[in-house]
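Mods, move this if it's the wrong board.
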Amino acid sequence: MNKITTLIFDMYGVIIEESKGNFIPYTYNHFDESEYERITRQFRVEKLFTKAGNGEINSDTFLSMLGFENPQFHMKDYIENHLTLDAGFVPFAERFAGQYEFVLLSNDVSEWSAYITEHHGLDKYFSHKIVSGDVKCRKPERKIYELALERIGKKPEECLFIDNTVKNLLVAQELGIVPVLFDRDKEEYAGVKVNTFEELAQVIEE
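Not the wrong board. Structure tokens:
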């Protein structure tokens, strides 16, 4: 890994243990069963979650449209009580942030991503945060990787990308970025896999 200067991290399924998040079950749990048909339509047909993640609507609007009367409370409650920071990330970051540039590349609602990194004290580790809700495109679209490379000013081969989804890694690899699968979901993948940040440390020290 001599050429690597930059580590690019996915959020969900890497830094946050829940690879798909828990927000859809969180929503159903907060409403009466009589509301389930409406909620299902809003997620599946109106695609409100996707629109929020693409920056078409903000967090407060998204949560209000779902029927939450206090959007700020529920954003914070969900992030603080229903998502789990991987216990290995901060020790890994403390060890390696001085040796490598850390970059976040995440599909997420803008306000949620900002709150996650603030709540867990992670902002100090990242030189750049490229979030789908901010940049209006998302993994695995080629555009978001090209934007990330442009913003950080690095060549693809200088960057190691850690994600839990194979399709995201394949597009990055096409651009010349070095891919590593964080194997939360046991996807089939012929490339380098890790299961923990301790294993990731071993990979980058090779």
